[in-house]
Design a protein that fits this description.
By secondary structure, the protein is α/β, with parallel strands linked by helices. The protein has two domains: 168 residues; 207 residues, Rhomboid-like (Rhomboid-like fold, Up-down Bundle). 63% of the residues lie in helices and 7% in strands. Strands 1-2-3-4-5 form a five-stranded mixed beta sheet, with helices on one face. Strand 1 and strand 2 form a beta hairpin.
């Protein structure tokens, strides 16, 4: 390949790829049925899909078919990624003169269209200026021709390698310690009560009247380490082993502990707010870990693929349904733990997902939820 073989359209395409992949963290995706098109995806941006179309479109009929096909493909992506709304930017680099682009480009607010003949069409476009105001500053290069092509290609490849390393760090198996320690504590406490014939439930269970009137606030935690029978213990230990090891690996040990204990307390607080029955068990904390897994799965749903919808979400829904259907289960504690797990996961944040706004909102909501339940469950009731 030499400089003469690289035309202006190819250079514009390479510059766009450089900007969206290396600067805006879009990821190339494979879309079945798309030819001479490049699809880029970033679910954290307002414009979630950028589509660069190098295919020649001759007339309005071809353009209408392209729009129809694109919307059908986007609907498939929405279902796959569990997205309800998805703005799409279509950048055409080879539209024929017979295409009535003015009419098409003003018809739809969700699907945005740009017709590019030369670089200025991108730099001065109102859609670009309102959604990607920093593009102009990242569209200038000292290199030209083939040297520019090599530079952009190398930087895109380097960015892809960095992303691969990050994803490997997130999903590679980790050494699990905290989960096993928690399981060991649960088993030890149960065996201690069984062997010594000591009644631990009466003095340590989550029980609203004693917490409110005798200030026995320790029950909010101690009750979550007790179990009413061997089946209760084994089912919770198994769930903790399966889900806890995942959360510890994805979030790290410190964040895992924050999520676990906050969820346990929120489950206990909602339980005493809406029920006057004594309750025991780690289920509230485990449901918090389910909420945390749900939060993680949502943000990494592109990498988890159909696993997120076919495995993670149904398991959580099934457990919630069973909480209401099986007699004797403290479903209020489960719901409180689930909400707590989601909020605390938002507060501690996800590795390599530097979203300070979500973290701040998570911290604020976690505090509000805690104060709200303390007020309702302890001071008001």
């Amino acid at each position: 390949m030499n400089a003469e073989m690289i035309n202006e359209r190819d250079l514009i395409t390479m510059k766009l790829l450089y900007y969206f992949i290396t600067i805006k963290n879009y990821n190339p995706i494979i879309v079945q049925g798309a030819k001479n098109e490049i699809w880029l995806e970033n679910l954290e941006e307002d414009v979630k899909i950028v589509r660069i179309v190098n295919n020649y479109i001759h007339n309005n009929e071809q353009m209408e078919f392209d729009i129809f096909k694109t919307k059908r493909l986007v609907n498939k992506i929405k279902k796959k990624t569990f997205s309800f709304k998805m703005q799409v930017l279509n950048i055409f680099t080879d539209l024929g003169e017979n295409v009535n682009f003015q009419k098409i480009s003003t018809d739809d607010k969700i699907y945005k269209y740009i017709n590019v003949k030369e670089e200025e069409d991108i730099l001065n476009n109102s859609i670009i200026q309102s959604n990607f105001s920093d593009l102009k500053n990242n569209f200038q290069f000292n290199e030209n021709g083939f040297n520019l092509f090599l530079k952009i290609t190398n930087e895109i490849n380097q960015k892809n390698r960095q992303e691969a390393i990050k994803n490997g760090d997130i999903f590679e198996p980790k050494k699990i310690i905290v989960t096993y320690v928690l399981i060991g504590i649960l088993v030890f406490i149960y065996l201690f009560g069984l062997i010594t014939k000591t009644d631990l439930i009466q003095p340590f269970a989550v029980y609203g009247p004693y917490i409110r009137y005798y200030n026995e606030y320790y029950r909010l935690i101690t009750g979550t380490f007790l179990h009413g029978g061997i089946l209760h213990l084994l089912s919770n230990c198994y769930a903790l082993y399966i889900i806890g090891s995942q959360i510890e690996g994805f979030y790290g040990k410190k964040k895992f502990l924050l999520i676990y204990f906050y969820s346990a307390i929120m489950g206990s607080l909602l339980s005493i707010t809406l029920s006057d029955y004594a309750s025991v068990g780690a289920s509230g904390a485990i449901f918090g870990l389910m909420g945390s897994l749900l939060y993680f799965g949502y943000y990494y749903r592109v990498y988890l693929g159909s696993t997120w919808k076919s495995n993670i979400l149904p398991v959580i829904v099934l457990n919630i349904v069973l909480s209401f259907m099986v007699p004797g289960i403290d479903y209020f504690g489960h719901i409180g733990g689930l909400i707590g797990g989601i909020l605390m996961s938002m507060a501690v944040g996800l590795k390599y997902k530097d979203n300070k706004r979500d973290q701040i909102n998570g911290i604020i909501l976690s505090i509000i939820f805690f104060v709200f339940l303390v007020y309702l469950g302890i001071f008001l009731k």
